[in-house]
Amino acid sequence: LLTSGDGEWVVRYSVMVALQELFSTIAKSKPELGQQILEKLEEIVRKDSELVVSARAKLALQKLNRNLKAL
Questions:
Q1: CA 56 to CA 20: how far, in whole Å?
Q2: What are 13-48's pLDDT values in tens digits?
Q3: Which residues of 24-41 are buried (b: 16+ CB within 10 A; e: fewer)?
């Protein structure tokens, strides 16, 4: 979660992909960490100044929410 604030947009973009995958892997076994991931993605959507990063975080949230509804 700390690298989501890196100065390079490409690193932050990669972190969005990694957070999405991490959430998918641990959401059931570690719900508190899953909640932290969702909150971080929501924060990035609201605050990141780089459009491509905030858009990737938004896409991750959409996919994760779709998966949660399917459970």
A1: 10
A2: 999 999 999 999 998 899 999 999 999 999 999 999
A3: eeebeeeeeebeebbebb
pTM of the model: 0.87
Q: Is the dihedral of CA 6, 37, 56, 52 positive or negative?
A: negative
Closest CA to 4 of 51, 61, 43: 43
What pLDDT digit, counting tens, does each position of 50-66 carry? 999 999 999 999 999 98
Distance CA 62, CA 56 (A): 10
Residue 45 · residue 54 · CB < 8 Å: yes
